[in-house]
Design a protein that fits this description.
Strand content: under 5%
Order of helices and strands: HHHHHHH
Number of helices: 7
Low-confidence stretches: 29-33
Helix content: over 70%
Mean pLDDT: 86
Number of strands: 0
Largest sheet: none
Structural class: mainly alpha
Distance between the termini: 23 Å
């Protein structure tokens, strides 16, 4: 269980950073060109492009391996005593919220890939993905923390 928790911390931390970078690198809602920011002028670089490439790198090097480890350790833990977990109602809710995080992980990763390739993404939907990721993570944690109160 400790390995599953450690992998979750790495995974959620990394995918949250990727989601924030995708939001940062996403285009504005309007089609009018935006002036360069002070940071872009000072560094002489396009911060949106740098954020997009950093998001893709973090996704591939940290978020994806940590997700794989978390998934494998979670399945291993479930395989040790499947009968117990199957009858715990809090586990069903936790698993549902975790599946939401997994789905968002892949959607955010695909968006990071498209941004790194130069595609413009809508800022509004990136913000929704970021918020949905945080909501699913919080729900997953709450179901585990309050599992004793949820046992019925």
């Amino acid at each position: 269980m400790a390995l599953h928790l450690f992998a979750n911390l790495l995974w959620i931390g990394a995918i949250t950073v990727v989601a924030w970078l995708v939001l940062t690198a996403s285009g504005r809602a309007s089609s009018t060109p935006q002036p360069s920011g002070a940071l872009e002028l000072a560094l002489g670089t396009d911060t949106r492009s740098a954020a997009a490439h950093l998001a893709r790198t973090i996704y591939l090097r940290f978020a994806t391996p940590a997700f794989g480890a978390s998934f494998l350790f979670g399945v291993a833990r479930l395989a040790m005593d499947p009968g117990t977990y199957i009858h715990m109602h809090w586990f069903h809710a936790k698993l549902t919220a975790a599946l939401g995080v997994i789905a968002l992980h892949h959607v955010i990763g695909a968006r990071a890939k498209r941004l790194a390739a130069g595609s413009m993404q809508a800022r509004g939907t990136s913000a929704i993905l970021f918020g949905a990721l945080l909501a699913c993570v919080v729900l997953t944690c709450l179901f585990v923390i309050f599992r004793n109160e949820l046992i019925g």
